[in-house]
Design a protein that fits this description.
328 residues; alpha+beta; Structural Genomics Hypothetical 15.5 Kd Protein In mrcA-pckA Intergenic Region, Chain A; Pseudouridine synthase; 9-stranded mixed beta sheet; 4-stranded antiparallel beta sheet; 7 helices; 22% helix
């Protein structure tokens, strides 16, 4: 069973501090804490200002006393199956292909010891590969918590190893769709740049010319709107946050991305003109507009080439529909 402890942070807003949303202020002044993490804590009443619970959009003022409680859970001894609905695209006695919803963490880790895809899979199937241990039962590859889309899950160690080799050799087919800022100079292109952990925040990544691992992303424009573009992407490598970091690097941040600048207006001098429209669009999607749409691999037993496609989730469909409506 997990032991829950907590860390309490007390802050007093000093004279001269400009008015600012409290979630933005805390994310900027606290180490190793993202704005989305702060917003979750506020949503669950872990923040008080002057002994009162506030919302994330509260505007701080000099003299305000902030008390933020951060719960800290130790790693549980055992993972318990959880009855969480899954969108199963395909299943046989060897593997499962699941369409993961946005907001679901793939496997248990610090701060996420319940409600993960692994918990749901353990409830769904008594047979999962333990190739990477109980905490990653069946998991061959991952996508980010707030990225939706297709994942393949192995039921045996042999199946796991066979599919993992395809990922390592970059012979799998993986296509993502994203809505990102701006219009591209060329209809298709590639990004080749090393990705390393940020020295300011170890939980995020950035492009580096001297450190990190090589990363290679191909993109192609599907449709353009006034100040956003719908694109498809294929990965030559599979680094953590690769698409999000690469697109932010070339100033085409994924729309809605809390971590990599996707919720800031990023379109030259057009701020006054589009600010209201952007705010309305951001209400439609509270995450990065990124979906793992296509997944293909060779079946480890039948040796058949299998390709799976998934529809864009509702929030991305709503965003694209609104962009098309505005452009007409």
């Amino acid at each position: 069973m997990a032991i829950v402890t907590e860390k309490i942070i007390k802050l007093v807003i000093t004279d001269g501090q400009r008015k600012q949303r409290v979630d933005a202020y805390l994310a900027n002044c606290l180490e190793n804490t993202t704005r989305s993490r702060v917003q979750k804590l506020i949503k669950h009443n872990f923040l008080t200002v002057n002994n009162k619970v506030v919302k994330a959009n509260y505007q701080i003022e000099p003299g305000d006393e902030l008390i933020l409680t951060i719960p800290i859970s130790s790693r549980p001894d055992k993972i318990e199956p959880e009855n969480i609905p899954l969108n199963i695209v395909y299943e046989d006695e060897y593997l499962i292909v699941v369409n993961k919803s946005a907001g679901m963490v793939v496997h248990p880790s610090y701060g996420n010891y319940t409600g993960t895809l692994v918990h749901a899979l353990l409830y769904h199937s008594q047979k999962l590969s333990k190739f990477n241990g109980d905490y990653r039962a069946g998991i061959v590859h991952r996508i980010d918590k707030d990225t939706s889309g297709l994942l393949v899950v192995a039921k045996t160690e042999e199946v796991h190893a066979y599919i993992a080799k395809q990922f390592a050799a970059h012979t799998t087919e993986r296509e993502y769709w994203a809505v990102c800022w701006g219009k591209f100079k060329e209809p298709k292109g590639e990004i080749l740049a090393n990705i390393a952990r940020s020295k300011k925040d170890r939980k995020i990544f950035s492009v580096s010319t001297t450190e990190g691992k090589s990363a290679h992303t191909f993109y192609e424009v599907i449709e353009e709107y006034d100040f956003l573009s719908l694109i498809k992407l294929n990965l030559k490598t599979g680094r953590t946050h690769q698409i999000r970091v690469h697109l932010a690097h070339i100033k085409h941040n994924i729309f809605g991305d809390h971590t990599y600048g996707g919720r800031r207006v990023n379109y030259g001098n057009e701020l006054p003109k589009i600010k209201a429209r952007v705010n309305n669009l951001l209400k439609l999607i509270d995450r990065q507009a990124l979906h793992a749409k296509t997944l293909g691999f060779i079946h480890p037993v039948t040796k058949e080439k299998m390709v799976f496609n998934s529809d864009l989730p509702e929030d991305m469909q709503n965003l694209i529909s609104e962009l098309k409506r505005e452009d007409n």
